[in-house]
Amino acid sequence: MPDRADGELSVQAEYAVRAAERALASAGRAGRDVDLVILGCSNLQRLYPAIAIEVQEALGAGGYGFDIAVGCSSATFAIQLASEAVQLGKSRCALVVAPEMTTGHMNWRDRDSHFIFGDASVAVVIEPTAEARPGAWELLSTRAMSKFSSNIRNNGGYLNRCDPDRPIGREGDKLFTQQGRRVFKDVVPLATKFIGDHLADHGMATDAIDRYWLHQANQNMNELITKRLLGREAKHLEAPLILDEFGNTASAGSLIAFSKFSDDLPVGSLGVIASFGAGYSLGSLLVRRS
To answer: In the CATH hierarchy, which top-level class contains the domain 11-133?
Structure first.
C-alpha cells in the first residue's frame, strides 16, 4: 500500500470510517450525533495524530477521541471505556471502532503464524439504554484484567531506527511473534476463570448464558474454554466460530461473531462477549437483548 499524503484520509482511518458508517446506520444515528470516538486495535498505523481523531473529523462528529492498544482485547477495553463515559454523562453517543489490519505486521517467513490472520474492521455504537433502538443489546456489566506475558509480542516501534543493524524488515521479533503452545496452556485456564468469576459475581450460572462470543484465535482453545465453563461440549450456536471465514482478526473477532450470530436471539437473551490476547489482556462484556 503506497503512502498517502498528510492531507488524505489514512488507510486505517478509511478502514474505520467504513465500519463506523454501517454501525451508525444500524443504530439510526449519524456522525453528527457522535461525541466520543474510541479506536482500539492491536496495531496502529501511526502514534499521532490519533487515528480516532481523524475518524472523528471524517464522520463530522463532535466531542473528543483517542486511541488505545491492548492487543486482542483492544475492542472490549474500548467498549468498557465508552460505556463508562456514557454512564458518567461525559458522552451521549459514543462510537467504538476496531480497524484491525493484522497482516501488515506478519512475518511471512514464519510458517507457524502468518497464515492464521485476517484483516477486518468493526464498530459499535454505545448510548443510554433509554435512547437505543428496540432490540438493541444492553450492556449489563464489564470486566477487564491484564497479566504480563511475552508469549505474544511485537518489538516493532519507532526506537528501531536507533539500531540500524537490526531493521524491522529483517528481524523476526520486530514483527508478530508467538509461543503458541505456551499461550494455549496459559490462556485456557486464565480465560475460563476470568469469565466464570465475572458471571459468579452476578449470581449467574454459566449455563444461564444463551451465547458466548469468544475471541476468535483458535478453535481448540474456544472449545476447551466453553467445555470447562459448561461442564460439557458447547453446541455450535452456543459459542459460534467465524475462523473458517475470517481467520484471526485480533480484537475484531469476538465482535464479528456477535454481529453474525446474534439476530436470532429473542428479547431477554443473555450473552458474553469475551477477549483474551497479547499482554495477556482479557475483557468480558455481559449483555442482554432488550
So the answer is: alpha beta
- The answer to whether residue 41 is catalytic is no
Q: Is 119 exposed, middle or buried (0-12, 13-18, 19+ CB in 10 A)?
A: middle
- What are the sequence ranges of the domains in the chain? 11-133, 139-289
One fold for both 11-133 and 139-289? yes
Could you count the other beta carbons within 10 Å of the beta carbon of residue 266? 8
Contacts of 150 (CB under 8 A, 6+ apart): none
pTM more than 0.90: yes
122: closest CA among 93, 100, 138?
100
Q: Which of 118, 86, 156 is nearest to 252 (CA)?
A: 118
Nearest of 283, 279, 274 to residue 70 by alpha carbon: 279
Mean pLDDT, consecutive 10-residue stretches, the chain (290 aa), reads 94 98 97 98 95 98 98 98 98 98 89 89 97 94 97 88 73 83 96 98 97 97 98 96 96 98 97 96 97
Place of cell 474505520: 16
- The arrangement of secondary structure in 139-289, i.e. its CATH architecture, is 3-Layer(aba) Sandwich (3.40)
Give me the catalytic one of 41, 72, 93, 162: 72
Q: Are 123 and 75 in contact (CB under 8 A)?
A: no
Q: How far apart are CA 91 and CA 199, in angstroms?
A: 27
Task: State the pLDDT at residue 105.
Answer: 86
